[in-house]
């Protein structure tokens, strides 16, 4: 008998045995291998990456940092915390860094909600709030969104009053819809929260929006943490850097204690220090997204059987499938055959089979997507 079949060892909860697994966007190589589309022609529109690649300043700094690979990095990434603090005007003691923002999200859930305690989030939401909550044995609680993914803040606040969550996630702009909560709406949630609720404002896509107010709110709410990533506007998804900022260092200290000790390597630290000040690169990405977003969304609206869900302020938007004979998996597969990778709504629990999530990207990729969608609709 093998060890695997006789072991009585089990993980601490059922989600670690048969729980939900995150479904990432497909890589370009998949489409090239399966359908023979040249790599440069594949429209990779499912991972919300930067259309212009990585910050050149970060790339240079990473190359230079190779000489330090034999040395342990500083375990709190102090130099990076200082650079982030200086950039945004906060004390470095109020900054924690993670191997991607997703690591910071997992640390927040472990540190601020105990077993079976409620963690509030919208439905649908970025799946990892729910997946990590379940895997850690915390209790995710969902507040449904309204028509066309209106954040329905009244309902969110009602739910908050009922369940008294230990953590309340807000995503601004929202993933997967790109919808924005206004400053008044975010403030309403912050004002309604009990002092023992940690407010986690996820601003992964904030650069592409008209709402860069989250960091200012930190000075007013000492139970608020803002979460950010360098994967999007900075173009560093492959480097794995994210961070949390709070004006209240008492929120940051537990995260520092719970994180894997040397969670940020030499290359991550060096690249992120250079990248965080690469305004030129960020501005370029923002300009492309702001130009291409209305272009591609109105293009979708012009194709029979499809509609762009209005209101996105992110670098992606939802396409709703109106044609009854089509569903998201069918359209997803037909797009793949035409060299276009999008996200199938069926792979995003709580979103479902009437939607695709599509990145905004360079015009040539938008044109390929619009051509392919039009081709499927006939
Ligand atoms: C809402 C949201 N938050 C956080 C992240 C995590 O980004 P990363 O772990 O790459 O920093 C993502 C990535 O897709 C996201 O959509």
Strand content: 5-15%
Per CATH, the superfamily of the largest domain is Type I PLP-dependent aspartate aminotransferase-like (Major domain)
Shape type: globular
Largest sheet: 7 strands, mixed
User: For this structure, what is the CATH class of the largest domain?
Assistant: Alpha Beta
Strand order across the largest sheet: 2-8-7-6-5-3-4
Helix/strand-derived category reads alpha/beta
Hetero groups: pyridoxal-5'-phosphate
Helix content: 25-40%
The overall pLDDT, averaged over residues, is 96
- The number of strands is 13
CATH architectural designation of the largest domain: 3-Layer(aba) Sandwich
- As for the number of domains, it is 2
CATH domain topology of the largest domain: Aspartate Aminotransferase, domain 2
Low-pLDDT sequence parts: none
Brief characterization of the structure:
This protein is an alpha/beta fold. Helices cover 40% and strands 15% of the residues. The chain folds into 2 domains: 129 residues, Aspartate Aminotransferase, domain 1, CATH 3.90.1150; 222 residues, Type I PLP-dependent aspartate aminotransferase-like (Major domain) (Aspartate Aminotransferase, domain 2, 3-Layer(aba) Sandwich), CATH 3.40.640.
């Amino acid at each position: 008998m093998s060890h695997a079949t006789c072991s009585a060892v089990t993980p601490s909860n059922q989600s670690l045995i048969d729980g939900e697994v995150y479904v990432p966007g497909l890589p370009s190589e998949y489409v090239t291998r399966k359908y023979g589309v040249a790599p440069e022609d594949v429209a990779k529109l499912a991972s919300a990456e930067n259309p212009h690649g990585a910050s050149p300043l970060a790339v240079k700094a990473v190359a230079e940092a190779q000489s330090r690979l034999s040395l342990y990095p500083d375990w709190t990434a102090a130099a990076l915390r200082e650079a982030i603090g200086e950039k945004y005007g906060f004390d470095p003691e109020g900054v924690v860094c993670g191997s991607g923002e997703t690591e910071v999200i997992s640390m927040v859930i472990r540190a601020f909600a105990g077993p079976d305690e409620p963690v509030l989030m919208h439905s649908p939401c970025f799946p990892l709030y729910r997946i990590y909550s379940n895997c850690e044995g915390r209790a995710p609680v969902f507040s449904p969104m309204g028509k066309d993914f209106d954040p329905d803040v009244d309902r969110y606040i009602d739910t908050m009053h009922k369940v008294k969550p230990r953590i309340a996630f807000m995503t601004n702009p929202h993933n997967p819809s790109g919808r924005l909560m206004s400053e008044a709406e975010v403030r309403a949630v912050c004002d309604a929260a009990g002092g023992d609720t940690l407010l986690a404002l996820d601003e992964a896509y904030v650069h592409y929006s008209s709402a860069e107010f989250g960091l200012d709110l930190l000075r007013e709410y000492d139970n608020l943490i803002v979460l950010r990533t360098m994967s999007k506007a900075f173009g560093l998804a492959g480097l794995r850097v994210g961070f949390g900022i709070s004006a209240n260092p008492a929120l940051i200290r537990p995260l520092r204690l719970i994180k894997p000790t040397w969670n940020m390597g030499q290359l991550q630290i060096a690249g992120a220090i250079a990248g965080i000040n690469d305004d030129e690169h960020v501005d370029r990405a923002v300009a492309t997204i702001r130009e291409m977003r209305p272009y591609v969304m109105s293009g979708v609206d012009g194709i029979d059987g499809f509609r762009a869900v209005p209101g996105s302020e992110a670098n992606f938007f939802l396409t709703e499938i109106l044609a009854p004979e089509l569903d998201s998996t069918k359209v997803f597969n037909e797009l793949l055959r035409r060299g276009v990778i999008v996200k199938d709504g069926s792979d995003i629990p709580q979103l479902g089979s009437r939607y695709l999530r599509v990145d905004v990207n360079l015009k040539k990729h938008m044109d390929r997507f619009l051509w392919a969608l039009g081709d499927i609709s006939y």
